[in-house]
Amino acid sequence: MKYLFKNALVVTMNQKSEVLKDCDVLIENDHIKAIGNISDEDKEKAHVIEASGKLLMPGLVNAHSHAPMTLLRNYADDMDLQTWLFEHIFPTEDKFTGHDIHIGTMLGIMEMLASGTTSFIDMYFYMDDMARAVEESGIRAQLSRGVTNPQTGSDFSEDKKLLESIEFYKKWNGAADGRITGAFAPHAIYTCSPEYIRAVRDAAEKLSAPIHVHVDETRVEHEDCLKQHGKTPTKHLYDLGLLDLKTVAAHCTWVTEEDMALLKEKQVTIAHNPASNLKLASGVAPVPEALKLGINVALGTDGASSNNNLNLFEEINLAAFIHKGTRHDPLLISAAEALTMATANGAKALGMHNLGMVSEGNKADLILVDLEKPHFKPLHNPISALAYSAQGADVCLTMVDGRILYQDGEYKTIDKEKVWYELDKIVKRIF
Ligand code: NI
Of 8, 95, 154, 208, which one has the greatest count of Cβ atoms within 10 A? Predict the structure, then answer.
C-alpha cells in the first residue's frame, strides 16, 4: 500500500529541526519511502491524502501510561498518592476482569489515537487482554505485567506475577508485525522487596528484556527509602543491578544530582509525567538538569486517573511551562525540546532507531494536524504552535506502521459504539 501526503507542512523533528513547506511525503507499506522528490510512477500508484493547510509530524510516544486506568477516570480525585493508590485505586482494580481491561485499553487507545499518540509504554495486569487490544487496534506499544511483592526471601520461582511476566514476554514480544514488544515491570520500590526486584531483574536479563519501573515519584517514597535502606531509590535500584538493563524510569521527581549521574551512566530514560506529578502534588522533576547531563527524557501521561486524560499535547505544553514557572527562568525547556521529548526521545525510550522523526526509511508512524483553526493563525513558528497552541483534538489523521487508524473523527479498526456499550456495562457493574 502506498500513500502520498501532498503539500504538507512537514515538521521533521530531525536533528536539524527542519520544517519543510508544501512538501510531498510518500509512504510505502510500513515506512517513509521518500520526502520531497517523488517519482511520477510512485505518485500515480499512491493513494493521495491532500495535506495543504495541515502539518505532518512524527506520531507522539507516550513513555509512561496505564491505559486501562481510563476506567477509573475522575473516580478518585484530589488526594495524595498514597491515599489515592492504597485506599481507592488498588481495591477497585481488584474487581477488574480481563474483559474490563480489554475495553479499558481500547478506550485508552481511542483517546491516544485521536490526540496523536502512535506508541505507548505501559504496565498493568491482564496483559493478554491489553495486548489483544493493541493487536486489534493497530497501535504500537511496549507492554509489561506490572508486578508487586513486598515479601522478602530468596526463592520467587513460584511467584504468580513473575511467572505471568515471563509467559507474557515470551508470547507477545515481537508480535503483531513487531508492533508489540515486551518488558518487565517491578512496580516500585515501595511495593517490591529488594529480593523480589532482583528476581524480576534476573528473569528479564535472561530474556534480554527491558525494564519499566516507577522511580522516586514522591517525597514519601524518597524519605522512606533513605530510612529503610540508607540510600535513595535510584541508588537502591542501581545497587540491585536493575539499571544495568535497558530501563525506562517513570517520574524521577525527587532524584538528586548523584542519582542523575547514575541514571546517565546506565543510560536510563526518564519518563517525565508533568500532569500526573502536579495533580498528585508529587513535585516537579529536575528535567532541565537531566537534559543538561545528556539523559534521555521522554514524556508520559501516567494513568488517566491521575491526569485525567491521555493527551500528550498537554504534557508537551506542561513540560515546557512548569520548569520555566517554578524556576523563574523562561529560557528553560524550549518548545523544540518539549516536542523532542514526545517524539525522538520517546522513540529512544522504546529502543527504536527508525521512529520519532520524519525521515526516509523510518517507520510510517505519523500524524496530521489541522492548521485551519483560529488558534494556529498566524503561523509565525510551527514548532511554537505545536508546543504552545496545539490541542490534542487538532489531530485529524493518525497513521501507525503505514496504516491509517484514525481520520477525521473516525476509527478504522475500532468499533466505537461497541466500546461505549461494553464500557457502560462495566461501569454499572463495578461502580
Ligand atoms: Ni504510573
Answer: 8
Ligand 1 mean position, distance from CA 46 (Å): 41
Q: What percent of the chain has pLDDT over 70?
A: 100
Cα gap 337→334, rounded to integer Å: 5
What separation in Å is there between the alpha carbon of 253 and the centre of ligand 1? 12
Q: How far apart are the first and last CA of the chain?
A: 45
What fold characterizes domain 2-58+357-411? Urease, subunit C; domain 1 (2.30.40)
> Which CATH number is 60-350 given?
3.20.20.140
266: CA distance to ligand 1 center in Å? 21
C-alpha cell, 231: 540510600
Q: How far is the CA of 18 from the centre of ligand 1 (A)?
A: 33
Over residues 151-162, the mean pLDDT reads 94
Identify the bridge partners of residue 215 per DSSP, sorted by sequence position: 251
Model pLDDT for residues 68-122, shown as the tens digit of each residue: 999 999 998 998 888 988 999 999 999 999 999 999 999 999 999 999 999 999 9
Q: Name the average pLDDT for the chain.
A: 97
